[in-house]
Each structure stands twice: as structure tokens, then as C-alpha cells.
């Protein structure tokens, strides 16, 4: 072949630009893989997108979902949708309740009752100022409950269940500050661990219950309390305030407690809410295939 003749292209090979194109595609693929790896998933947007797809396929929600459902109380720790009800139109709707509103209402009412209990305790301390100084009574609050501790040294003789006449004015002060709007009144008797057995009382259970009954009778006579709002119990030495290891601690345990429990309707509301949630859960279990 002469020096001036053109060279023929090799047969069976690929064009040179194909290698450049393959390298470019590989780089683009790596670039998009890195973008996907560094991106963050927006759960709320994903939920909204899935809701749009449900609408497109004929399933409609009562309220547009924009956030992930969350549990707002002990009863509703796990979210479950309401049972769908058929309609005349070719639609499927599901209904639910606003549990946030119910929970907030209960908390607001409970806060008000706690403040009322503290105010009630302040009025009792003011009325029983002299008895508090002598140590004849003590007053404390526990949430929506006001507890008046009536000590034995001022109200009863040792081993007896008859109230001392000198303590009647103090009980009258307590009765003046308790009415049917105050709440449920629980009167409970307590003793120390020294056993008792005589002709009148077979045990500390008898003694503690009889003392609680004596206080209940006096409060009913000195006020217009509804007997249906009063509960009388005797606990003997089963609920001491202090260890029964000294005469001073035993004296603290010999007492009658008058507990004014406010917010009974809140407890009933919670019980009904729990029962309703349990019934709804049972219905959901029944319709599962």
C-alpha cells in the first residue's frame, strides 16, 4: 500500500463515542444515587400523598390527613381507624371522635377541683387554728382530697369510742365547712398495733370502726349532710402514719380521718371513657376477618 492511500477502519469494533456515552451514564447514575442517599423522607408529605392516592381510587376520609396520628392518653396509646359505614353513594367514610378535646376537658376540670380542695383546706385551717396549735387535729391535701386527722388524745379516751364533750365544738366547726357540694366524705378509724379485747370491743377492728361511726353521727347531727355522701370504714392498725415503735408514733396512729373527696364526677367520667374505649375495641375485634 502506498503512503498516500487512506487506512481502512477495523471491522467488528464499536464507535469511539459509545465509551464516552457509557461513562457519562454511569456518572449520572452515581449522582442520582448519592442524591437519594442524602435525601430525608418527609413522613407527613408521604402520608398526604398516600391520602391523595386513596382519594383517586375512591376511598375518602372525613378529615384530610396531614399528620401522623398520635396517642393522646393512656386509653388511646395505639391509633386505630373507626369502622367504615356504607353510604348510598359509592363512597366509604369512617368516623372518629375528638379524643384531644375530651382529654383536655377532663384535665381542666381536675385542675379546678384541685384548686377548690386547696381553698377548702385553707378555710378549715383558719377555722381550726387553735386545734391545730394544740395538735388535736392536722389537715393535709392530696390532689382533689382534703384530709382532716382527728387525734385520739383530744377526741377519745383510751380504749373508748365515745367522743369527749370538749371536742364537740371542733367537730361543729368541721361540720360548718362541709356540705353536700364539698364532695364525698369518707370517715375512717385507725388504731395502733396494741391489741384490745374486752366486753365491748373484740379487736382493734371493732374499736376503729366504732370511733369512725361516732364521728359520722356527730357530723350528721351538726350539719345537713346527705348520708348517701358519707362512707364509714375501720382499718385497725393496717394503715399507720408512723411505725409503731414508740409511744409518740403510736399516738399518731390512733386517729379518725375525715377525707373530703372532690371530683367524683371526673372519676366517673374517666370510668365511662375507659368502658367506651374497651367496648369500641371489642367491636373492632369482632369485625376483623
Task: Show the helix and strand layout.
Layout: H1 16-38, H2 43-56, E1 85-86, E2 92-93, H3 99-127, H4 129-134, E3 137-142, E4 145-151, H5 152-155, H6 168-176, E5 184-190, H7 204-222, E6 230-234, H8 247-253, E7 255-261, H9 264-287
Parallel strand pairs: 5-6
Antiparallel strand pairs: 1-2, 3-4, 4-7, 5-7
Helix pairs in contact: 6-7
Helix content: 40-55%
| Major sheet size, sense and barrel closure | 5 strands, mixed
The radius of gyration over CA amounts to 38 Å
CATH architecture of one domain: 2-Layer Sandwich
Structural write-up:
There is one protein chain. The chain is α+β, with helices and mostly antiparallel strands. It has a domain at 104-268: 2-Layer Sandwich (60s Ribosomal Protein L30, Chain: A). Helix content is 47%, strand content 12%. The chain has nine helices and seven strands. It has helices at residues 16-38, 43-56, 99-127, 129-134, 152-155, 168-176, 204-222, 247-253, 264-287; strands spanning 85-86, 92-93, 137-142, 145-151, 184-190, 230-234, 255-261. It has a five-stranded mixed beta sheet. A two-stranded antiparallel ribbon has the order 1-2. Strand 3 and strand 4 (145-151) form a beta hairpin. The N and C termini lie far apart (87 Å).
